Amino acid sequence: MSDAKAPLPPTTFANASTVSEAAAGAILTIDLGAIRENYRRLKTRLNAAHCAGVLKADGYGLGAAQVASALMKEGCDIFFVALLGEGIVLRKALGSGPDIFVLNGLSPGSESQALAAGLHPVINSAAQLKAWREAARATGQRLAAAIQVDSGMSRLGMAPAEVQALAKDAFDDIDIRFVMSHLACADEPRNPANEAQRLAFERLRGMLPRAPASLANSSGIFLGAPYHYDLARPGAALYGINPTPGEPNPMLPVVRLQAKVAQTREVEKGAGIGYGHTYHARGPLRLATISFGYADGWHRRAASAAWFEGVRLPFVGRISMDSIILDISALPAGGLGEGDLVELIGPSQSLDDVAGHAGTIGYEVLTSLGARFHRRYVGI
Ligand SMILES: *Cc1c(COP(=O)(O)O)cnc(C)c1O
């Protein structure tokens, strides 16, 4: 009936799952083999350019250490996190091998912690540059860093005026691994902002010491070779999010989310369903309540459906914290029972479909997924 009792694949990660399958209300399956295949597909597009892996927000919610280990098997040895704290955790998990860069830079006074963990800052301001040079002088070593310039997103990185004002010796003691910037509209290939940012990036990096360059995120890779430079920084595409919205997804799906049926029941016409009775049965209905709710990261206002063996089972009534009621009348009587699993993300309903129903993006769906799931890593 379902694969609820399929044997667990072996896993090498201590934190692979803190909740057993029997104890969890939902099961998140993460296909590390698909992540590796997605990395290979991006590398093929990049030709000679290197390809890093972006692991911020715990690998977009899927487990930064597990994803990094999978990518390292494909030869990936440069990773990005957003925060120093994420970098410290990742360094412990990975050991001293790969380069780990902290995208949001270091807050004042945290330089020694970055040094102790062997992490490289992305330097976003002249003040951060000065602080990292001081750290370098204190240790008597040249210290690695990436330099980020703002080519037109107004988020992170040195502004053009700040770059221009840098002294000739501003980078003494710094080993500039690459100069980078980030695209604001890469998922809109016809948006003229892309070319404008690329030209601004060219101009800004011309004012800096010669170093390799990095501009493209996932969607940026699909803008073509002029955007590839020396290093690409994909996140979303590795995790199966479509980097080319509006066109078929060139990536493999990576996640499957299934929730367990806690109870089934039949109700009469007119029965009030869920909090606030926002829904009343228009006729006799068969219902299933699943152990999954807004506390698991499913937006309360996102009307949607679950699927079972290709049959759509619409949500009825309000989404509760720990449960959702499904109309299962489309299934034969007895076709779904307690402990069976219904699909929330998977072959019948893609991550991008779910995001579309919720009025958001796949990135937010993934990073919202809660901590109560049994996590199953496959394709190891
Ligand atoms: C998040 C991020 C990326 C990865 O972006 P995706 O769209 O997930 O590929 C790359 N670079 C920077 C600076 C980022 O913040």
UniProtKB/TrEMBL annotation:
Catalytic activity: L-alanine = D-alanine
GO MF annotation, one: alanine racemase activity
Co-factor(s): pyridoxal 5'-phosphate
Top-level taxonomic group: Bacteria
InterPro entries: Ala_racemase, Ala_racemase/Decarboxylase_C, Ala_racemase_C, Ala_racemase_N, Ala_racemase_pyridoxalP-BS, PLP-binding_barrel
Active site, renumbered: K56, Y275
SMART domains for the chain: Ala_racemase_C
E.C. no: 5.1.1.1
Domain Alanine racemase C-terminal: 254-378
Alphabetical UniProt keywords: Isomerase, Pyridoxal phosphate
Modification sites for N6-(pyridoxal phosphate)lysine: K56
Isomerase found in the keyword field: yes
Function: Catalyzes the interconversion of L-alanine and D-alanine. May also act on other amino acids.
Family affiliation: Belongs to the alanine racemase family.
Protein name from the UniProt record: Alanine racemase
The organism of origin for this protein: Mesorhizobium captivum
Gene assigned in the entry: alr
